[in-house]
Each structure stands twice: as structure tokens, then as C-alpha cells.
Amino acid sequence: MTLVDLQKRFDEKIEAEVKIEPKDWMPDGYRKTLIRQISQHAHSEVVGMLPEGNWITRAPSLRRKAALLAKVQDEGGHGLYLYAAAETLGVSREELIDELLCGKAKYSSIFNYPALSWADIGAIGWLVDGAAIMNQVMLQRTSYGPYSRAMIRICKEESFHQRQGYEILLTLCRGSDEQKAMAQDSLNRWWWPSLMMFGPHDSESTHSEQSMSWKIKRKSNDELRQAFVDATVPQARYLGLTIPDPDLKWNESTGHWEFGEIDWEEFWQVVKGNGICNRQRLKDRIRAHEEGAWVREAAMAHAEKQRHRRDVA
Ligand code: FAQ
After folding, report:
1. Is the pTM of this model over 0.70?
2. pLDDT of 294
3. Which atom of ligand 1 is nearest to the CA of 224?
4. Whose CA is nearest to atom 17 of ligand 1?
């Protein structure tokens, strides 16, 4: 089959909503885009364990500790599904992790902000997982089969995470004045970084147009950000909290909440590695990787032994 035929067959599949699978022919750019996006996503899940992991020992009750422990463990699992999905594109997990640890690979800007109070654990679940779900629901329909299937599983777990965060804030908001103030303070700090998670405006986005034509992305950064604001404002009101945006207003004719401008200078500084926690996050991941070396070696030795047993039998 000629290159022209292969491209034609690929285009037809995309058009007909038939998933592209690992052994199918695909354009180089499509493969590269997927490796970039899926690996950034995997790194985000794994680095994303750090801000909340920091609070496991300080959770206010056994029930909260068990839920947080399970949530953080889920995020690690999501990272593994995603690394496995990226590996189907012909890249090794070691290469991807090396790129993260040497500071070359990106991960979501949001995880470079510190979790300073217990209310932040509520805000992360409510806002960060809430934003992640908004993005990931559309990724369930992404055109690459292994990524789409990983997303279906991940979304089920993320919706539980979002509710556990919201419930933490609901409890605080129904508590003492001090607890409510703690919840408001954490909304003040996490609101804008959560909006940044969706990436630059569509007009500034490098990859969106091509990714949407390949149906890797099914909705644009700005569309998803708007959907997130529309869904979240009523939730903040129910909590009795104020969104820290003086420009926020309901537009009756569009049926959407209008909101103020994001501080893009802050966003790009964080993406470039100059956020509050960037250096600490990498240091922690490097330490975890080094301390986990014996686990990887033991797992490999076990697999090798099993293989040997099978060969002998
Ligand atoms: N942070 O052209 P675009 C989670 C970069 S998972 C850092 O618009 P694209 C679960 C972008 O990579 C959260 N960098 O890019 C959880 C590109 O740079 P490059 C992660 C960002 O790919 C919850 C450049 O800017 N979710 O939270 C960010 O078309 C709680 C130009 O941007 C995903 O990764 C950012 N926020 O659209 C875990 C979802 N935004 O690569 C623990 C999958 C943009 O050219 C606790 N990813 N950049 O060097 C996506 O949907 C897309 O990749 C976007 C960006 C929407 C993030």
C-alpha cells in the first residue's frame, strides 16, 4: 500500500470515528502529538500525588485519612495506565520518566502550587479534579484507542475524587467561622490556577487546531474552561463561598458566566519551571524514583524468573 493509500485509510477512520489502534499506520505527527500529550498527562498524575500526599499524615480523622490515601493511590494508578498507553506508541517508560526527572518534560502547572491547609485538600478534589474531569470526559472520545480506554476508567475514579473534595469543603463551610474562612482562603488561592489548567487561549494554543482535526482533542481549551466555570460557580454559591473574581457575571443572553482575565505571565512562569513548588516537586520525584529502584529491580528479577521457568517447562 502506498503512503497516499495509508493516509487515506487513516483519514477515513478518523472521519468515521473508528479508533486508531497501536498496530495501525498513523502519521508521524499524530504519533508524536499523542506521545507528548499522554506522557505529560501521565507525569501530571504522578506529580499530582505530591501536594495531597503531603497531607495523609495530617488528615483530621481516620475516615478522611483512608479516603485521601485511596485517592492519592488512584492518581498513581492513573499515571500507570497512561504510561502504558504511551508505550503502545513505541516509546519506553524509562525514556519518558527520564525526561520528567531531568526537567525536560512538562506536567500540569497546577501541581506547582502548595497545599497549605486541610481546606486545600478539599479545594484540590473539588477544583483540580473537577477541571481534570471536564477535560477528560471529552478525552474518552479521543481517536486513539488505548488513550480513550484509559480515560474511561480514569473518569469513573475522578468523579469520586471530586465529590470527596467537595464534601470536605461542605463540612468546613458548615463549621465554625474559622473553618469557613479557611475554605474561602483556599478557594482564593486555587481558583485561578485551576482555570490555567485548561492551557492558553485557543488563539495562543500551538497544538489545538491540529489535535482537534485528528480528534485527539474533542473540545478546545477555552470551551472546556468556560464549561468548568459554568459548572463550578453554582457549586461555590451552594457552599456560601465567593469566587475571587470581581469581573464574574452572569450573561443572560449567552447563558454563560463571564469571567476576568487569567494572569498569563504567572501561567508561563510556572510552565517554565519558576512556580512556587517546581523545584521541590522534581526533587521529590527524583528521590522517590531512587528509593524505588529496589522495587523495580525485584519486579524485573521476578518476571525474569517466571520467564525462565516457562522456558524450561
Ligand atoms: N500546564 O497548544 P496547547 C489531573 C503547554 S490531570 C503545563 O494548548 P495542548 C488529575 C502544552 O503542553 C491534569 N503546560 O497544548 C489529578 C504546550 O507545550 P508543549 C493534566 C501546559 O496539548 C487531579 C503549550 O503549553 N491533564 O489533574 C498547560 O493542545 C488531582 C501550548 O499549549 C492533562 O494532561 C498546563 N496547564 O493542550 C491528579 C489532560 N497547558 O507540549 C492528581 C490531557 C498547556 O508544546 C490530583 N492534556 N500547556 O511543550 C490535554 O488535554 C492538553 O495537553 C492540554 C493542553 C489541554 C493540557
Report:
1. yes
2. 96
3. 56
4. 206
Separation between Cα atoms, residue 7 and residue 117, nearest integer Å: 52
Which ligand 1 atom sits nearest the alpha carbon of residue 49? 42
Asked if residue 197 has its Cβ within 6 Å of ligand 1, the reply is yes
Instruction: Report the residue among 37, 113, 142 best suited for mutation to probe ligand 1: largest number of ligand atoms under 8 A from its CB.
Output: 37
Count the Cβ atoms, other than its own, within 10 Å of residue 86.
26
DSSP class of residue 129? Answer: H
130-172 pLDDT, tens per residue? 999 999 999 999 999 999 999 999 998 888 999 999 999 999 9
Residues 184-221 pLDDT 10s? 999 999 999 999 999 999 999 999 999 999 999 999 99
Give the 3-state secondary structure of residue 256.
strand
pLDDT value of position 230: 98
Among protein residues, the one with the nearest Cα to ligand 1's atom 5 is: 199
Instruction: Find, among 60, 7, 51, 61, the residue nearest to 29 by Cα.
Output: 7
What is the atom index within ligand 1 of the atom nearest the CA of 221?
Answer: 56
Provide the grid cell at 66.
Answer: 483512608
**pLDDT, tens only, 6-62:** 999 999 999 999 999 999 999 999 999 999 999 999 999 999 999 999 999 999 999
- Nearest atom in ligand 1 to the alpha carbon of residue 125 is 30
User: How many other C-beta atoms lie within 10 A of the C-beta of residue 61?
Assistant: 8
**Distance from the alpha carbon of residue 119 to the mean position of ligand 1, in angstroms:** 25
Q: Is 194 in the pocket of ligand 1 (CB under 6 A)?
A: no
Q: Which residues pair with 251 in a beta bridge?
A: 256
